[in-house]
Write a structure and sequence with these properties.
With about 60 residues, the chain is mainly alpha-helical. It has one domain: Orthogonal Bundle (Arc Repressor Mutant, subunit A), CATH 1.10.10. Helices cover about 65% and strands about 0% of the residues. It has 4 helices and no strands. The radius of gyration is 15 Å and the shape is elongated.
């Protein structure tokens, strides 16, 4: 993130939180779902999020099977 901010020059970044989540979240969800053999209840426990939230995130990234 420091390198990203240093490369901005004078431009003010927008939606950095979303930018980071969109890069990090899909691989995290993929790896976790693989680890638990697609069991959403176990995945939500591991990730510390509600199962409905997990389903929403899986849908968002096209990972719901």
């Amino acid at each position: 993130m420091n390198r990203y901010y240093q490369q901005l020059d004078t431009n003010m970044p927008i939606d950095v939180y979303k930018l980071v989540l969109d890069e990090v979240e899909p691989p995290l969800l993929i790896a976790t779902m693989k680890f638990v053999n697609q069991n959403q209840s176990k995945a939500s426990q591991i990730l510390g999020i509600n199962r409905a939230t997990l389903r929403t995130k899986l849908k968002k990234y096209g990972l719901l099977k």
